[in-house]
Write a structure and sequence with these properties.
Radius of gyration: 17 Å
Strand content: 25-35%
Distance between the termini: 53 Å
Number of strands: 2
Number of domains: 1
Number of helices: 1
Order of helices and strands: HEE
Helix content: 40-55%
Length: 70
């Protein structure tokens, strides 16, 4: 087993989180636009929940939040 490279690990985590952030924002924006066009949104803020899972580590972590439209 090779030595743990803290710097490489940090960069890989940041790269993953950047991908998650960009992709998540795009998906949220698209879903909200579609819901607005279809008249499906009935108020603001919109309750949100993001779940991070790493099965190999037995990690499941949820973050609750809200997105205001006005």
């Amino acid at each position: 087993m090779s030595a743990f490279d803290e710097e490489k690990f940090n960069m890989e985590v940041r790269k993953f989180l950047k991908k998650v952030g960009v992709t998540s924002q795009r998906e949220i924006e698209q879903a909200i636009r579609e819901a607005l066009q279809a008249g499906k949104l009935k108020g603001t803020p919109i309750k949100t929940k993001m779940t991070l899972e790493i099965a190999e580590l037995g990690l499941s972590f949820a973050i609750d939040g809200e997105i205001a439209l006005r």
